[in-house]
Structure formats: C-alpha cells, structure tokens
Amino acid sequence: MPESPRYEIEGTYRSQPVCVTGGAGFIGSHLTEALVRLGARVTVLDDFSNGRMSNLAAVQNSIRLVRGSILDPESRREACDGAKVIFHQAALASVPASVNDPVSYHEVNATGTLHLLEIARSLGNGCRVIYAGSSSAYGDQSQEPKVETMRADPLSPYATSKLAGELMSRAYAHCYGLPTLTLRYFNIFGPRQRHDSPYAAVVPIFLERIRRGEKPVIFGDGEQTRDFTHVANAVHANLLAGAAPHDRLRGEAVNIGCGESISLLVLLDRLAAQLGIESECEFQPPRAGDVKHSRASIDLARELIGYEPTVDFATGLSQTIEAGRILSG
To answer: CA-to-CA distance for 34 and 307, rounded, in angstroms?
Structure first.
C-alpha cells in the first residue's frame, strides 16, 4: 500500500475564508470549532431547523452567522461570498422521515447542493466544495467492507437525495474543473448528537432511553452491524480534504469510517456496561429503507487525503457518555 499523503492543516486555514453549511448542527458545529481554532474566518449558514445556537456557544463571537436555508438564494450568496472552501454539511438526514416526505428531501439534499455548487463555480476563485455524503449510497449490498468502486444502490429517498448531491459534485468537477470531494460518512456519533429530533441516530436514542430506565427499541433482530465513527474523525477528514491539493479533489467519493463494525446488540451491551446498568431491549419489525450491514474500507481516503481515524469506537463512546453526564448535571 502506498504511503498516505501528509497535508499541512495548521497553516492552511489561518485567515482563510470558509463557509460551513449546517454549521450549528451536530457535525457542523464541531467542524466550525476546529476551523476557528485553526484561525479560519468562518461563516456559518444554518436555518436552525435541526441545529442549535448552543452548539456554537464556544465560538459565537468568532464567526459570522447567516441565518437562512441553503434553498434561499440570498442566504446562500451572503454565506458563500469570498469563501475559498465550502464545507457542505447541511441536509435533511432521516431515512424514515424521507420515506414520508421524499419531495422535501430531494429539494434540500439534491437541489440545495446543486445551487451551492453553482455558487462555488460562480465565485471564480478556485473555491473547493467538501460535500458530506452518506454510506447509505451502498444500500444493502452484502459485500463487506464497502468500497467506493461498488455500484450505488440507495434504498430510501434520503439515500437517493444524498447520492444525487454526490453525483452533481462529481459532474461539476468533471465539467467545470471545480475542486470537489465527497466524504461518505459511516454512522457518525458523539457529543451534541440529538436524541429528540426526527434525524436522531441510534447511539443518542439508546443512551437517552437507558438513562430514563426505558427499553431501547431495535428494529429487526439487532444483528445488523454499523461502522460507528466518532465525530472527531469526520472533522479530521473535512480538514484534510479542505487542505488537500486541487488535483486530489476531482469529484471522487471516499469512505469516512473506522473500518470496523459492531452489531446493535453489542452496542447496547457496551452502553449499558459503561453506564453500570443492565439493559433490555424491545424488538420491532425492520423499517423500510434500513440496511443490514455497513462497514467502510478507508483505503481510498488514506490515499487521497491521508485520512486515519483519530478516535476509536471505545474511546469515542466513553467521551460521548461523559459529555452527556456533564450536560445532565
């Protein structure tokens, strides 16, 4: 295997104008904090449909905030004006909700991304777009681990809408030379991830139900597996992509995970063990659009942007639980 490239992050972002869409959300707020620490001039675009101002409390005096949707032309233009890198994190992100409302998912995730790419192209300053993709592009194919050369097989309106944004990013790289890269996230978790929204993921939902003395609900038999990846790894991948040479940003999609997977039943056991309690679960029928197994090959991310996970699952789970304890007092 060729040696992974090493890109200079520290100096790259100093005084660099960047935009983070969805910057008040879970991943976006962690990325925003990291960029501020690196000295970037950060503009956050968020409509607060899922993001929270409290997520930006530590940096609110160090950023420019544009309250608006990526579907609003004026908000897009204001947020992206002069940006050298656009980190596109904004999205609707629930598989079940997308089944109920496919039109909204297409408008935000697909059409919204198209408009953002067009703004980046119109800037004419070599602005790069780092797009938050999804491992849902692979669907329920049995091959493990998932590699980027596999065919796309999205099984839900959410997965399809995210793949549409990914393919449009690739088209803009091919047709216009716009430097773009898609990061296919694999089950990101960590502090600030909401348990009380339509987009809630399994880790915060399980944690909250265990804390309340309720049984977590598992859809299916619990043997389905996921490559749970701490949010610090997603942030690191974005920073690497934003610092990579333009010739590395040709519209490819790369997996961002840890390369390991565990079942939902094992996840539940580990959560309960770290909380020092016993936990049972309630089984319900599988949901439409859910996949059975998901594990990332991260070889291409290593090759293109020098990505390596910085926080393993066990450490990330401990940090997430501890952050929850601090918040709950």
So the answer is: 16
Which domains, from first to last, does the chain contain?
17-189+230-257+295-309 (3.40.50.720)
Q: Cα separation of 17 and 80, whole Å?
A: 9
Token representation of residue 286: 């599988």
pLDDT score, position 125 = 95
How far apart, in whole angstroms, are the C-alpha atoms of residue 112 and residue 271?
Answer: 37
Q: What is the pLDDT of residues 26-83, one digit of tens each?
A: 999 999 999 999 999 999 999 999 999 999 999 999 999 999 999 999 999 999 999 9
Catalytic option among 158, 172, 185, 307 = 158
Of 252, 316, 258, 248, nearest in space to 6 by CA: 248
Helices 112-123 and 157-176, packing angle to 10 deg: 20
158 is a catalytic site residue: yes
Beta strand 41-46 with 262-263 is: unpaired
Backbone angles phi, psi at 218, to 5 degrees: -115, 125
pLDDT value at residue 49: 94
Closest CA to 213 of 277, 256, 117, 298: 277
